[in-house]
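Sequence only, no structure available. Ideas?
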Amino acid sequence: MKRILLIFVSLSVSYSAISQNLLPEKWKFKTGDDAAWSAPGFNDSGWKEIIPGNAWERQGYNGYDGYGWYRVTFTVPSKFRKDAETYGGLALQLGKIDDVDFTYFNGKLIGQMGELPPDYITRYNEVRNYTIPADMVLWDKPNTLAVRVFDLTGDGGIYSEPILLSVKGLADKVSIEPAFTEPDRILKGAQNITVPLVLKNVFNKPFKGKVSLKVVSDFGNDICNLEKEITLKSNKDTRTGFIIAGIEPGFYKATVTFSSDKFTKKTAFMFGYEPEKIVSPPNPQADFANYWSRAKRELAAVDPQFKLTKIDTLCTARRNIYLVEMRSLGNVLIRGWYSVPTTPGKHPAVMQVQGYSSTIVPSYVDYGDDLIGFGLNIRGHGNSKDDVNPGFPGYLQYFLNDKELYIYRGAYMDCVRGVDFLFSRPEVDTTRVAVEGASQGGALTFATAALNNTRIKVCAPQVPFLSDFEHYFKVASWPGNEFINYVEVEKKMSWEQVYYTLSYIDIKNLAGWIKAPMIMGAGLIDDVCPPHINFAAYNQVTTEKKYIVYPTAGHGLPDDFYAKKMAFIREHFGLQ
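Reply:
I predicted one. Tokens follow.
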């Protein structure tokens, strides 16, 4: 979901700094793409400075997608040569890079993650750890690191920490881990909380130094910056911790650093405190209920023209597969995939709704031998692009200036029409219909359950999108950057007008209408749909509900959640 960027920084680092980080805070940066920019001798004096660890959109390059380069030049003292040769060279940490990177040291490629178009593969959510062999280092002479980045859309560049270059060796003998007793790192109870830590030293000698804790909120507000002296015993685990007083409900990023005269070690992690007490009140417009009742009346006036086409090549002894076509709001043609067990009789059904810009295919909706699966491609997605196709980016802003024509008014009605289809089928047990989906599909799950609150009996959103927009644009880089470009660069609307339209499709304003039991999954390190916005909507649901937070998961949750949501659905359907 990103672009490409190349940046270089020039700086000489003295021996006294080697125990810290060889890389300076500010690097050089330039948009565009030129292979010559990897060369150590290239003159980057005309490039602008940037701070890696934060997306380039937030540093003066708003709306830019494509290629760019980072550059930095530094000196490694020869006194560290023996350790580097003994322990395997230099360790380079570049945090996460959106989307694809090619990393060069002294002009030679030392690492790559992701693939460029036309065989594009994003690796935006993976930490980069590369090794620089000792024999590639020019000891006591300038060395140049160059990072080429490609970003397809949304935010781009080196956007997270840690950004570190150190000599391999002693630092590799120490690890820092959070030691919460809560597996999901969600804390509850008294506002004076403890952040427990365990520092593991597998070296045969102790280390003396300082351990520090910096905590910021998911809005970027500083919460605390604490420090204490500590000794790491040889071949032992050392437990310690810091107390934070008066913490408020929300989500927090902790950065822990151990510094000695030999090396520096750093780690970062997220934790939450009382997420069900996060206050983000609904803000519907006065005509909110009428807006959606009118939309449903307009939809009801459209002849659905349901059409099923059996796809023999996809059918098996277990299931029959059909292409579904139907007409939705505005007479827009939409399609989906219908997967029906071959066993006779009525069956419960699960409707799957899709993520932003993704395509649902038949294999996605095989829920087993006793459940019907229906995968809906909403307008502008997958095989539903005939009549409406804004593309990506652009989908989020399509008719944003007109609440009656805004893309998600139609998309939400597509979901209602999908439920209409299921209720038209004689093989569907209409007393047992569920909806589930992830990201945009999580938002569509909320909307479907809210707008069909007498027909949907179970809902299972995962990392839901389209929630709590005024906060969302503060805690996540994308899609806020697209709206910043729309408002502040293209000047097509004011922020007041943007938030007005978005309030009609904000799922936190719809959530109170849901009557079905809900299970929601969230990733604690999700920077696309951060847990704050997930809970802004979840906290408005008044029916039976439960959530599962995965502390090391980002926007993609582990298979464990699929198993648990299906168990939740099956339990409420009375299935074994």
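The mean pLDDT is 93.
Hope that gets you unstuck.
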